[in-house]
Design a protein that fits this description.
By secondary structure, this protein is α+β, with helices and mostly antiparallel strands. The protein contains five helices and ten strands, in the order αββαβββααββαβββ.
Length: 234
């Protein structure tokens, strides 16, 4: 009976010794999991727009409704011929219904207007031929020379340049952003006499597409920021 108690005491003492040696190791290991560094990785690229929506707004004025409609059709044909001759397919051109304003029917205005009817018409080009459209935009004076009154309404009918090839860029941009984040983390670890460990958590920021500047809306800046947390160890 005494031997059994002795053996039990020895086992308990050995267990306590082992536990005592393991506690510092466990504490150090736990503390290593509390040491982290948060870094961000940025990736930016400039790309050309791959789609353009170009509304061409023109006005027709007259006193007789029938002749006004005839002028609308005539000028519409002139504009479409100009576009097709410049390399735009007919399938890329759409025509909106004209908006006619009867100045005599406007109770808030006076009737001493030069023309009774003022018509606003919009012909829209939606195309992936961005360079072709840019060239035509620089030749709009040819339409003015033909007597077509163009209205540059950038608020109601703005020209839009879009970039729709983002999915093709995403993998390489995320890879580059992650690489940049790791380089930052490695430098931080080196400066703090630590070693960079595994990733604790990572989040990919949203992609943003914006104009590079106000003068070249057909050139876009694509941007993504990745946020990554790494473990640090001694």
């Amino acid at each position: 009976m005494d031997k059994a108690k002795l053996y039990a005491g020895i086992c308990i003492m050995a267990g306590l010794i082992v536990m005592g040696t393991m506690i510092p190791v466990a504490v150090n290991k736990y503390m290593s999991y509390t040491r982290t560094v948060d870094v961000k990785g940025l990736c930016e690229r400039e790309v050309k727009a791959d789609k353009v929506i170009w509304p061409i707004t023109y006005k027709v004025m007259g006193d007789d409704l029938q002749s006004t409609y005839q002028q609308i059709d005539y000028k519409k044909k002139q504009i479409i011929d100009f576009l097709v001759a410049g390399g735009i397919d007919a399938t890329e051109i759409s025509v909106s219904s004209p908006k006619i304003s009867d100045k005599f029917a406007n109770e808030y205005g006076n009737n001493d207007r030069l023309y009774r009817y003022v018509t606003t018409c919009v012909i829209t080009v939606c195309s992936e031929k961005v360079d072709t459209v840019l060239a035509l935009m620089n030749k709009q004076s040819e339409l003015i020379k033909q007597g077509i009154t163009l209205s540059g309404d950038n608020w109601e009918n703005p020209t839009e340049f879009k970039f729709e090839g983002l999915n093709e860029l995403k993998p390489s941009m995320v890879e580059e952003a992650t690489k940049n984040a790791r380089e930052t983390a490695e430098k931080f670890a080196k400066d703090s006499d630590s070693e960079l460990g595994k990733i604790k958590k990572a989040s990919q920021g949203s992609f943003s597409i914006e104009n590079r500047d106000s003068n070249t809306p057909h050139i876009k800046r694509v941007r993504v920021v990745s946020s990554i947390t790494y473990y640090l160890s001694n």
